[in-house]
C-alpha cells in the first residue's frame, strides 16, 4: 500500500498537459492559459487624466487663467501643454500631452459667470496624471502560462485585444458506475437497494473542475461481463480519463482492477493509505488514465479531491490546489488512525483567528457532511494532530 504523497508523485509523472487550442474570449472562462500574455503596448498607452477638472502648464501657479476649450475623453490630446495663463477643460480619461502637463480638480477651481476665466484656488499638480506605462511596459508579461482565466483575467485580455488566447483543451471524462444494488435518484429503491449518488456527485465535481463528462453509464448488475462491456464502450469514446465507481476493493463483485489489466492497462496503484478512500485504483494505457474509486460516497469525494482533481490540473497545464496551513479549533475532537486521514472540515472564524473545524462523520458512506465541507483536513498517520494542520480546500 502506498502513501498519499507517493501516489501524488506517481500521478504527476503520468499526467502531462493536453493539447492547447486557440479559442474566442467568449468561450474561454475557467480555462488554463498555455502561452504568456504580453502587453502589446504600454499600459496605459498614453498619459491620461484621473480627474474631472482642468489642464494647465506645469509652471502654472494658483491664480487666474483663461479657459480656451477642452479635451473630451476619446479625443487625441494636443501635441503640447496649454501656455501658462491658459487652461483646457478635461474629464476623467482625457488624453494629455506627453510633456509639461499639470492638472487641477474641478472642486479646487471657480469658474467666472461668463465661463471664460478660471480661478485656480490651489497650485495645480501632476499627481492626478495616470502616466503612460505606469502599469506595464510593452512586452511585459501580464499573465503567465498556467493561470486560470477568471473574470478579471478576461477583462485584462479584452483591454489589450487578446480575443483568441491559447488555452488547454478541457479534459473529457467517462464515468462508469457499478453496483447491482443501485437505482437512479428518481427511482424508489426496493428493499436492500440504494440510490446512486456518485453519478450526480461526479457530474457536479467535474463541472467545478472545468472538465467535461461526455459519457456515463450505470451498470445494472454485478456480473463481470456487464462491467466489462461498459468499460469497453467507455474506451471506444475519446475520453482522456475513465472513472469507475465501486468494485475497486476485494469483494466478490470487485472486478475493476482485473478488468483494466485484461484491457491492456498497467496498474500503478490498487490501495492507498488514506482514510477514507483506501481502495483506489490508478491505471494507464497509451496516454489514457483510468481510476477506480471506492463506491462509498465520502470515499468517492475524498479520492476525487485528492487524486482525480490533481490529475485534471496537470492535464490542464496548471498546478494542483495547494494544501493550506491552518490552526485547529481548540474544541476539535479527532481520532488518529494507522492511515493518514482526510477529514471533512469547515473554516471557523474565531475572533481574529481563522481556524479549521472538523465536521462529524460516521463512516465512509456518510453523505450528511458533504454539503458543508469546505476542505479536507489532513491528519498524519498514527499521530494526534498538533495545533498546526494542513487543509486541502475543496471549494
Ligand atoms: P463498493 O465500492 O462497490 O464495494 O461499494 C461500497 C459501498 O458504497 C457499498 O455500500 C455500496 O452500496 C456503496 N455505493 C457504491 N456505489 C455507490 C453509488 N454510486 N452511490 C451511492 N453509494 C454507492
Ligand atoms: Mg459495488
Topology (elements, then pairings):
Blueprint: H1 4-14, E1 20-22, E2 37-38, E3 48-49, E4 53-57, E5 63-71, E6 86-90, E7 101-105, E8 109-111, E9 117-120, E10 129-130, E11 141-143, H2 151-159, E12 166-168, E13 172-177, E14 182-183, E15 194-195, H3 198-208, E16 212-218, H4 224-235, E17 241-245, H5 256-262, E18 266-269, E19 274-275, E20 281-285, E21 288-293, H6 297-316, E22 324-328, E23 340-350, E24 353-358, E25 375-379, E26 388-393
Parallel strand pairs: 5-6, 13-16, 13-17, 14-15, 17-21, 19-23, 22-24
Antiparallel strand pairs: 1-12, 2-11, 3-10, 4-6, 4-7, 5-9, 8-9, 18-20, 20-21, 22-26, 23-24, 23-25, 25-26
Helix pairs in contact: 1-6, 3-6
The structure holds adenosine monophosphate (AMP) and magnesium ion.
Residues 177, 179, 181-182, 194, 196-198, 245-249, 251, 294-297, 365 line the site of adenosine monophosphate.
Structural features, described:
There is one protein chain. This protein is an alpha/beta fold and 395 residues long. The chain folds into four domains: 4-17 and 169-316, Molybdenum Cofactor Biosythetic Enzyme, Chain A, CATH 3.40.980; 20-43 and 135-168, Molybdopterin biosynthesis moea protein, domain 2, CATH 3.90.105; 48-130, Molybdopterin biosynthesis moea protein, domain 3 (Molybdopterin biosynthesis moeA protein, domain 3, Beta Complex), CATH 2.170.190; 324-393, Beta-clip, CATH 2.40.340.10. The protein is 18% helix and 30% strand. It contains six helices and 26 strands. It has helices spanning 4-14, 151-159, 198-208, 224-235, 256-262, 297-316; strands at residues 20-22, 37-38, 48-49, 53-57, 63-71, 86-90, 101-105, 109-111, 117-120, 129-130, 141-143, 166-168, 172-177, 182-183, 194-195, 212-218, 241-245, 266-269, 274-275, 281-285, 288-293, 324-328, 340-350, 353-358, 375-379, 388-393. Strands 7-4-6-5-9-8 form a six-stranded mixed beta sheet, with no helix packed on it. Strands 16-13-17-21-20-18 form a six-stranded mixed beta sheet, with helices on both faces. It has a five-stranded mixed barrel with strand order 22-24-23-25-26. A hairpin with an 8-residue loop joins strand 25 (375-379) and strand 26 (388-393). Helix 1 (4-14) runs parallel beside helix 6 and helix 3 (198-208) runs parallel beside helix 6. The chain is elongated. The model has no long low-confidence stretch (mean pLDDT 95).
